Amino acid sequence: MRAIIEYLPSEVMLIWRVIDGKDIAAELTGKRYTPVEFYCTNPSCHCQRASINMTEIDEKDALIPSTPLARIDCQWVKKVSASLFKDEMQSPYAAKALAQFCSQILSDSEYIQRLKDHYAWVRRHSIIEQTQHRKASPGNNNIAAGRNQLCPCGSGKKYKKCCMTKG
Predict the structure, then answer these.
(1) Which pairs count as long-range contacts for 137-145, CB under 8 Å and 24+ apart, including other chains?
(2) Separation of alpha carbons 78 and 156, rounded Å
(3) Would you say the pTM of this structure is higher than 0.90?
(4) CA angle 127, 132, 133 (to 5 degrees)
(5) Tens-place pLDDT, residues 33-61
(6) d(CA 69, CA 2)
(7) Which of 49, 57, 64, 83 could form an SS bridge with 75, CB 3.0 to 4.6 Å?
(8) If we measure between CA atoms, which residue out of 142, 141, 135, 144 comes closest to residue 155?
(9) Where in the chain are the domains?
């Protein structure tokens, strides 16, 4: 899974949706949260879903690095639906955050179309990245690399953990 802000930071900043903390719980008054989308990068997967972290933002709309208020599984295979991830540690406010997400954000058809568009965009680009990675791998162009050196494909991994087994 990769965050959409890794691919399209400026577009994401322009169309953020914000939930006021006071709409979730009185203790969260003064805090604001935005959905940060993560998409599957496996080209053989056709899950049509996004993992959404409800993340706190400051008064300048910058993300505050912290544990998300809720981790939401949003999918649109037959119909649009959202639920909390069951295997994740959720905050005590996760259920209320999910309810606000569904009523304020998930009901917005423009946002749903944006999720679908970003999903398609990430899939296209992850396929392109993987194709470029395979073309650059030592098995395809005979570049010598020591097993403990960085892989010449540019992945940032050691050769033995990346392309050595593919060559």
Answers:
(1) 137/162, 137/163, 137/166, 137/167, 138/163, 138/164, 138/167, 139/163, 139/166, 139/167
(2) 38
(3) no
(4) 95
(5) 988 888 887 777 788 889 999 999 888 88
(6) 19
(7) 49
(8) 135
(9) 2-130, 143-167
